[in-house]
Amino acid sequence: MELTWYDVHHSELNIHQLHDILALRNRVFIVEQQCAYQDIDGQDLARDNRHVFALGEGRLLACARLLTPADAGSPVKIGRVIVTSEARGLQLGYRLMEQALIGCEQYWPGHQQFLSAQAHLQGFYARIGFKPVGEIYLEDNIAHIDMVK
To answer: What are the backbone dihedrals phi and psi of residue 77, each rounded to the nearest 5 degrees, phi first?
Structure first.
């Protein structure tokens, strides 16, 4: 399947792209994972935050959010990493993270990258160079672990 990748500042998102991103996150993180939490947290359209996403056959298939470092010594936070259920098994997670890491280096060179991984995905993130920091903890009743690269 041919994909078109985007890495855009939040101000460059059109209303349809933003809707599709929020709808996908809602479908997977809230409905599929049965986790009632506040996904729209004020960060999607803040600071110099960015969205990385892939379209295939006119549909959103994968996305992630990059949060601007808080200061010169802080990491870029990668979050809301998601691949649609229809596209799982196609290695899109690796390609999405590759695009996210390219964006981190392009817009915030020299900063570490940080993510709060669902604990069952620790091996996936480790294969692309992330290392766990701290212990597993519950966030919204789902086991997570902080990881840095």
So the answer is: -100, 125
